[in-house]
Write a structure and sequence with these properties.
Layout lengths: L12 H19 L12 E6 L5 H12 L3 E5 L1 H4 L7 H11 L2 E5 L3 H10 L4 E5 L5 H15 L6 E5 L4 H13 L2 E5 L8 H9 L4 E4 L2 H5 L4 E4 L11 H7 L7 H4 L7 E4 L11 H4 L6 H20 L1
Parallel strand pairs: 1-2, 1-3, 3-4, 5-6, 5-8, 6-7, 8-9
């Protein structure tokens, strides 16, 4: 029976830990020069992109290569999801050609529809609602640096967006407390917050960045306006004025707190360049760990 990665809420804590432990193992062995090309030898991943990406494309394509497989990039003009052909038909046809589908799309319903009709595993590479692969790389990074996850507090400073949603899912499954500081009207999805609280997780929605940062083990941020929100970017810049991770905010957190950003960054807006390059910052470790976490997902779902 095939397994998809559409949302981390669909995966148990044990399944997520299986990903993290395998990711750490594959990372260690890669650095030791161990050849893993036998794991997905002969396997092909279709990478469906409605929006461009540096990290998602390179990490998935490199991951497939390192595991012995092959990745095919299908850009916005190659498929035109739901326009030239229905998403259902695309899912069925691709399933006849490839061993897995990764999709980076706008509407979350597209990933859900691909998963519903494909007979091969579907991986959510990003949707307007969720970004589970980012959260897996983030949890791997925190675990590497702190050697534990349960009992830690993650403070998200900024928009209640797709990254925040998947971090809420991950925190709920792995025992972290989640706080977000955001202006009124930019809170995370109510259903996702309610789901997390139903799992027994602590989720706090605050207005003041310093209140969220106080005593936190991780300070996390993302761009204020996501791709596709160019028309409201100026409105968001005004609303989020003051929601910037800088050295003053870092000093509110616990000693040794990690500073995280999923990138790309707009320095001087959601984070200062100095904070991003400070000893507290692990933003480039996060970027690397997208590769290792996704390799673990690919190995588990496609092998």
């Amino acid at each position: 029976m095939k397994r998809d990665l559409v949302s981390l809420s669909d995966w148990s804590s044990e399944e997520i830990w299986e990903v993290l432990e395998l990711a750490a193992h594959l990372k260690r062995e890669l650095r030791a020069g161990v050849d893993h090309r036998h794991i997905l030898a002969g396997k092909t991943l279709a990478m469906v992109f409605q929006k461009p990406s540096l990290r998602t494309r390179v990490s998935f394509e490199t991951g497939m290569t390192q595991l012995g497989g092959h990745a095919i990039y299908l850009g916005p003009e190659d498929i035109k999801l739901g326009k030239r052909e229905t998403t259902e038909d695309i899912a069925i046809v691709l399933s006849r050609y490839v061993d897995g589908i990764m999709a980076r799309v706008f509407e979350h319903e597209i990933v859900e529809e691909l998963a519903r009709f494909a007979t091969v595993p579907v991986i959510n590479g990003l949707s307007d609602l969720l970004h589970p692969c980012q959260a897996l790389g983030d949890m791997l990074t925190i675990w590497e640096k702190r050697r534990r996850l349960e009992g830690l507090t993650l403070a998200f400073i900024g928009d209640g967006n797709n990254v925040a949603h998947s971090l809420i899912h991950a925190c709920a499954r792995l025992g972290l407390s989640f706080r977000i500081a955001c202006p009124e009207g930019y809170e995370p999805d109510e259903a996702i917050v309610a789901w997390a609280r139903d799992q027994g997780a602590e989720v706090k929605i605050l207005r003041e960045p310093k209140e969220a940062a106080r005593g936190a083990d991780v300070l996390y941020t993302d761009v204020w306006a996501s791709m596709g929100e160019e028309a409201i970017a100026e409105k968001k810049r005004h609303a989020f004025s003051g929601y910037t991770i800088d050295q003053d905010l870092i000093e509110q957190a616990n000693p040794g707190a990690l500073v995280m950003h999923c990138l790309p960054a707009h320095y001087g807006e959601e984070i200062t360049y100095e904070a991003a390059r400070s000893p507290s910052s692990v933003i480039f470790d996060q970027a690397e760990n997208r590769l290792h976490a996704q390799k673990a997902v690919l190995a588990l779902l496609l092998s």
